[in-house]
From TrEMBL:
Pathway: Cofactor biosynthesis; biotin biosynthesis. Belongs to the class-II pyridoxal-phosphate-dependent aminotransferase family. BioF subfamily. GO terms for biological process: biotin biosynthetic process. It comes from Crateriforma conspicua. This is 8-amino-7-oxononanoate synthase. Its cofactor is pyridoxal 5'-phosphate. It comes from the Bacteria. The gene is bioF. Residues 48-389 form the Aminotransferase class I/classII large domain. The keyword Transferase applies. Transmembrane segments: none annotated. Keywords: Acyltransferase, Biotin biosynthesis, Pyridoxal phosphate, Transferase. One of its GO terms (molecular function) is 8-amino-7-oxononanoate synthase activity. It catalyses: 6-carboxyhexanoyl-[ACP] + L-alanine + H(+) = (8S)-8-amino-7-oxononanoate + holo-[ACP] + CO2. Coiled coil: none annotated.
Amino acid sequence: MRWEKSIVMNLDRFTSDLADLESRGRRRRLIPRRIDGRFLVDDDGRRLLNFGSNDYLGFALASATPSPSTHAANNIAGSTASALVCGWTLQHHRLAESIAALESTESAVLFPSGFAACSGTIATLAAPGDLILSDALNHASLIDGCRLSKADVVVYPHGDVAFVQQQLQQTARAGQRVWIVTDSIFSMDGDIAPLADLVEVAQRYDADLIVDEAHGTGIFGQAGSGVVEMLGLKNEIAVRIGTLSKSIGAQGGFVAGPQAVIDYLINHCRPLIFSTSLSSGAVAAAQRSIDQIQSDPQPRVHVRRLSRRLREAIGQQCVPGDPAAEVPIIAHIVGNDSAATQASFELQQAGFYVPAIRPPTVPTGTARLRISLSAIHTDEDVDHLASALARLTKA
């Protein structure tokens, strides 16, 4: 069915905006591709080695052997209702209990997406009159949650703990509740937040720290729960947000924390209360992945080793023992928007999919290639990409 041309709606604002984006090389489009293991396949059959996915442990991409996601694919039924009506099944409950056990918290609750978990949790826990200190490079979901909370929001320079302390000394009012909000790993740069220092400052000034482990879950920590565990801070950071759609290879989000916080979200968090609960297929896939994370550390060991290997191959400094060198996100800064787009195109011509990330996702002048590694990649894959990047640099 095709739309008739006589649509009763003024589209000038939208078409003008799209034309402006097009003129600046920033218009985005959805490009359909088929996923075949660690490859993306274009309509013309061209196979691209995929370095754009957030499937860090390879649970969603693996096709040579049945993965958690493919096992669950036979059960795609919807949950039929929101969690509070009748969409919270025994499987949902078991998954939430498994997440709480992984995170070593009293309880956990599931959300329809990581975005909903972040934005909904911040907007619900923080209240008008509170103060939120939010890292400048936090994910959009955290930023939106801060805005929706109607609390006083101060955006602090990226990773600047001294600035946070100064704000707590000078800006926070007596008796005012203060929240510090940060990602554990920043999605566009791959760097790790100074969580230990933030914890120290938060405790000194009686602030609460909320951490989004979207890119840390499954990768770091002895049990695989993330950066908070790796740094030994589970008892100091009460509320942790995560996603089921990256390392876990499924779909959805979660919040883990004290029982009182989880119960408060269940009673007041609108994205949780008014959204249809996760499908049974997503729950089954996530459960299998969490079970595997706890029983088999090899995928996270492998992807961390690949991350260090690629950084060393492209000349990035890797300090021995520094976990930042093992984050499976590598930013290759190009600077100019069109140059980043061209670099991504040339890599596609060479058989690699590495997305160009441009403003407004990243600051103006920092357009980049964002390289994401997965446990499904091989040493040869990484070495070939490093060689292709070297050829680009020389050109």
